[in-house]
Amino acid sequence: MLSYLKLIRAGNLIFIALTMFLIKYGLFEPFGVAITLNLFGFSLLVLAVVTVAAAGYVINDIYDVSADLKNKPEKTFINNKISEKAGYRLFFILNIIGVGLGFYLSNLIGRPGFSAFFIFGSAILYLYNSQFQQTILVGNILVSLIVGLIPIGVGLYDLLPAITPQNQQTQSTIFSILIDYSIFAFLVNLLREIVKDQQDIDGDYNAGYKTLPIVFGKSRTNKILFLACLLPLGFLIYYIYHYLFENIAAVIYTLLLLVAPLLFFLINIWTAEKIAEYGRLSMILKAVLFFGLVSIGLLQFILL
């Protein structure tokens, strides 16, 4: 059982669920916006997203066996503790549950077309692992896009169907906040995906992948990461100046937990060479993503 929990990255799935519940109960409820789903319906939405994400982790391990044996053999579960056949079975079961729940919820809220959100997510995760890992940057962008769509997905299912002419302005403002969080999550996760490629360059090379470090080399990729990091950093500085400047607590939170780690990343990525250095920088970005998304629950104390 422990091997299966590690295979589906249970910790990451808990973070996804936490983010979604923070959006509903830390953003929607305090601001009194109109919502569509009750607790049971929203829990089904969370379960649908989590199961599709879990399926993505499973198929990733199935296709990454050769690379993982080189990069992180202690974290390789397929053909080690879990058979490939069992892995595929779990992948299909999780996908059926996730897409099925998504289809049910889409019809429940009267928007059957929204089921494409889950079909798209499931298909992209499969294509990423089976095809796009061998194409430079495409896989990194697609995975980061999936991460970035999580806040928007909550808005689509819980916020959008409840829009009326009377509440349109309020609903639109809250939805625009979700879009901002989605953009930030996309940018930070894209950085992290490329850093992980730096960390896994040897195994990826043996597996025949065409990642950014393999094509351009570590040194040039470091410089690309340096420039790319300026985007989320600039995004945060803009937000502090335009929206948070009058709230000292919010400014301190953003500076200490988001801006400072990104500055640390910016300084250290330029000269990074060793696997341990890239591993540390990857964890820094993971922390930035965590504290960035968790701050959704703090907006009520800033804006109200």
CA-CA gap between termini:
44 Å
Structural class: mainly alpha
Tell me, briefly, the overall form: globular
Which percent band covers the strand fraction? under 5%
Which parts are unreliable, with pLDDT below 50 for 5 consecutive residues or more?
none
Count of helices? 14
Q: What Rg is obtained from the alpha carbons, in whole angstroms? A: 20 Å
**H/E element string?**
HHHHHHHHHHHHHH
Please describe the biggest sheet, giving its number of strands, its sense, and whether it closes into a barrel. none
The strand count comes to: 0
Q: What fraction, in percent, of the residue positions are helical?
A: over 70%
- Rounded mean pLDDT score: 87
Description:
With about 300 residues, the chain is mainly alpha-helical. The chain contains 14 helices and no strands. The protein has helices at about 1-5, 10-30, 40-65, 65-70, 85-110, 115-130, 140-160, 170-200, 200-205, 210-215, 220-245, 250-270, 275-295, 300-304. Helix 2 runs parallel beside helix 7 (about 140-160), helix 8 (about 170-200) packs antiparallel against helix 13 and helix 12 (about 250-270) runs antiparallel to helix 13 (about 275-295). The longest helix is centred in the middle third of the chain and has 32 residues, at about 170-200. The radius of gyration is 20 Å and the shape is globular.
Concise overview:
This protein is mainly α. The chain contains 14 helices and no strands. It has helices at residues 2-7, 10-28, 39-63, 65-71, 84-108, 116-130, 138-159, 168-199, 201-207, 212-216, 218-244, 248-269, 275-294, 299-303.
